[in-house]
Amino acid sequence: MIGSEESSPGHIVQDEGDRLLVGAFPTSSINPAVPERRAEEFVEMYGKGGKTNCQYSPNVLHDRWKKLVFNACLNPICAITGLDDGRLRLADGALDGLVRPAMREIVAAAKAVCGVELAEDVVEETIHVDPLESYLKPSMQQDLEKVRLVDGVFELRCCSTDSFRATSSNSRTYWASH
What 3-state class would DSSP assign to 139? Predict the structure, then answer.
């Protein structure tokens, strides 16, 4: 997770440190010790530069769903409305009408599809992860503002359908029950 923006064409400002969680996704065809060992080796190599916070995560599936709470909700909502995360939080009805319901859907999908239990406070923690007065624009909003519509639409579709694809390919019919 890297906090950065393109302040002008070709000029990138990275105002947060590089934080990377690495882990192995469960698979039935490989002994789990092999990908876990490889992930730990990668963390060691990547961190040797001393400029990153790279950590091994034993539960990367949980981490992915937790990140989707932000990426599948705040990212597209900010892009569509044109409001950065601070102004979105200040907009009358936006949190209760758009953001919280969308985030609760991702939390429910994580549990229904993968059995991933996210913390009870994950929605509020995600909403308030950045200081209100930072007025940060998620990457999708930045892309749309740069008139990179093709990239923005592609990312919007990918973030939104990533969790949907997981649920629709699962034998349990999650969406039909909601």
Answer: helix
CA angle centred on 23, ends 2 and 115, rounded to 5°: 105
> What is the tens place of the pLDDT at every residue in 105-151?
999 999 999 999 999 999 999 999 989 998 888 988 888 888 654 54
What are the structural domains, with CATH classification, of the chain?
Answer: 16-58 (no CATH), 59-178 (1.10.1040.10)
Single-letter amino acid code for the residue at 150: V
171: helix, strand or coil: coil
Q: What is the pLDDT of the chain when averaged over all its residues? A: 83
Rg (the chain; Cα; Å)? 18
**With contact defined as beta carbons under 8 Å apart, do 92 and 129 qualify?**
no
Q: Hey, which residues does 8 pair with through a beta bridge?
A: 11
What would you measure as the largest C-alpha separation in the chain, in angstroms?
51
Rounded-to-integer distance, Cα 158 and Cα 66, Å: 16
